[in-house]
Design goal:
Length: 497
């Protein structure tokens, strides 16, 4: 045998051996899901762009419904189909139920007391139990619904004033202030914002400050190696804002305790009262740190989400005024034209509910859900998701999947009249509130706040766009941030029905 035959023959044998060994080994250690090749250091960060939900939806067209990217140092797995979302959020929920905690939330150790950011552990279970039983159960919500009803009446009074003057309203601003007050009254029977003016700015501004810092893209979240440096100063500013907010919450707690000391008993039906009852009687293992972190979570999770839903709903309706007419017919028949809507009425308003589902399908406020994290290597769809990976579920693209939805890009509430799907985390084609053990606990409250506000706006006024803007010209540009908001504010003019 000559030298060349021996040389090439050996290489051939070696290649065959390597192939066999790789096949044997890969039976035990499967690969990451497919994805774009990462660049040195930044990985695939440059592919995210200003609207990551859209960039990721486009990448999924090439790499499939389960793909992996490297965002800086962080291995990120993106799910873009309802079937795999069900696998992650339901079948294998336990393995995917931890959270990827943004660095800013280390301020004042918030993440150590927060229901939104703790991993699934006994402390988290206690907080979720309190939320489910003591705050968001039907009985509790019924008990303090009068506090919210009053706020919706004030919103209508404000719109009435604008209607008399023919003034346009910034729908997002008014909705935000009303949502803030709906929530602050549910939590501690106090207004945080004045829908009629910009007074009472203090707490509102502090909450804005906190949310702005948490919502900023932070290099440290992609390069934990830089943690000590806090390059953008986000953690430093978060410490200041969180500090102010916690001081304000301390003030509210002390004020309530003082009231109790003076009167000898607690008499309010709000959440603070319930929390203090639990801590005073040691009914659960929570203290004032949990109360403050819980308030921060509830404001953070409950105001922007409900506001963006309301603003998008009104935007879609003003684009198709015939839908407003249909909703008004339903409201007139069931509630009576111009009459106030109460939370108990919502279940009798199917078309209004269809409008809200359709809004959440097309404009989910949290388009990638709150990032999950795996604490151990996990096998998913024949791939391995390595320990420490971040997992994103792109509910924005799932809601627009043309293999399931007919005309997915058209806003058509009627589709839900014949489609038995709801948003409670059981139908994975429509999961704006997430699903599984980390399903949004505020869903029962959001399902009251949003329809009552939207229904009240539609049952009290006719709405038109500012002069010079035709419905078909209305811009639908999105802005990705803490929530998927409308990029430019929607301004609309109310007039008497
Ligand atoms: C978590 C959506 C309103 C409180 C979440 C999650 C989503 C979500 C997607 C993460 C779920 C997951 O990881 O699977 C929404 C939407 C809302 C809304 C679309 C309104 C349209 C509210 C309200 C509150 C609230 C009104 C309370 C006042 C929370 C909390 C969490 C959460 C505390 C964290 C739960 C945990 O991690 O265990 N929400 N939410 N949300 N939401 Fe909501």
């Amino acid at each position: 045998m000559d030298y060349y035959t021996l040389f090439f023959g050996s290489i051939l044998v070696l290649a065959i051996l390597c192939n066999i060994i790789e096949k044997i080994c890969s039976k035990g250690s499967k690969k990451l899901p497919p994805g774009p090749s990462p660049w040195p250091i930044i990985g695939n960060l440059h592919l995210l762009g200003a609207k990551p939900h859209i960039s990721l939806a486009n990448l999924a067209k090439n790499y499939g419904p389960i793909m992996s990217l490297k965002l800086g140092q962080i291995t990120t797995v993106v799910i873009s189909s309802s079937t795999i979302a069900k696998q992650v959020l339901k079948t294998q929920d336990q393995a995917f139920s931890s959270r990827f905690v943004p660095n800013a939330l280390q301020a004042h150790n918030h993440y150590k007391f927060s229901v939104g950011w703790l991993p699934v552990c006994p402390q988290w279970r206690t907080l979720r139990r309190i939320l489910n039983i003591n705050i968001f159960s039907p009985n509790r919500l019924d008990a303090n619904q009068h506090l919210r009803s009053q706020k919706v009446k004030e919103l209508i009074a404000y719109c009435d004033k604008c209607s008399q003057q023919g003034e346009a309203l910034d729908i997002g601003q008014v909705a935000f202030k009303t949502n803030l007050n709906l929530l602050s009254n549910t939590l501690f029977s106090k207004d945080l914002a004045d829908p009629f003016s910009d007074s009472k700015v203090e707490l509102k501004e502090v909450i804005w400050g906190v949310m702005a810092e948490v919502g900023k893209p932070n290099l440290v979240d992609f390069f934990p190696i830089l943690e000590k440096i806090d390059l953008q100063g986000i953690r430093r500013r978060a410490i200041i804002h969180f500090g102010k907010l916690f001081k304000l919450f301390d003030g509210l707690i002390n004020e309530r305790l003082e009231e109790k000391r003076r009167s000898g008993f607690m008499e309010k039906s709000d959440v603070l009262e319930m929390f203090l009852n639990i801590t005073e009687k040691n009914l659960e293992e929570i203290d004032h740190n949990h109360i403050k972190s819980m308030f921060l979570d509830l404001f953070g999770a409950g105001t922007d989400t409900t506001t963006s839903t309301l603003e998008w709903a009104m935007t879609e309706l003003l684009k198709q005024p015939e839908i407003i007419k249909k909703a008004q017919v339903e409201l007139a028949e069931i509630i009576g034209k111009g009459k106030p809507i109460e939370e108990v009425d919502v279940s009798r308003l199917p078309y209004l509910q269809c409008i809200i589902k359709e809004t959440l399908r097309m404009h989910p406020p949290i388009p990638l859900l709150v990032p999950r994290k795996v604490e151990q290597d996990v096998e998913l769809c024949d791939y391995i998701i390595p320990k420490g990976s971040q997992v994103l579920v792109n509910v924005w693209t799932i809601g627009r999947d043309f293999t399931f939805w007919k005309d997915p890009l058209v806003f058509k509430p009627e589709r839900f009249l014949s489609l038995d799907l709801d948003t409670r985390g059981q139908d994975f084609e429509l999961i704006p509130f997430g699903a599984g053990r980390r399903l949004c606990p505020g869903l029962p409250l959001a399902s009251r706040m949003i329809p009552v506000m939207l229904g009240s706006l539609l049952n009290s006024f006719n709405w038109k766009l500012e002069a010079g803007i035709e419905p078909e010209e209305l811009d639908m540009e999105e802005k990705f941030g803490i929530t998927l908001a409308k990029a430019r504010p929607l301004r609309a003019i109310p007039s008497p029905l």
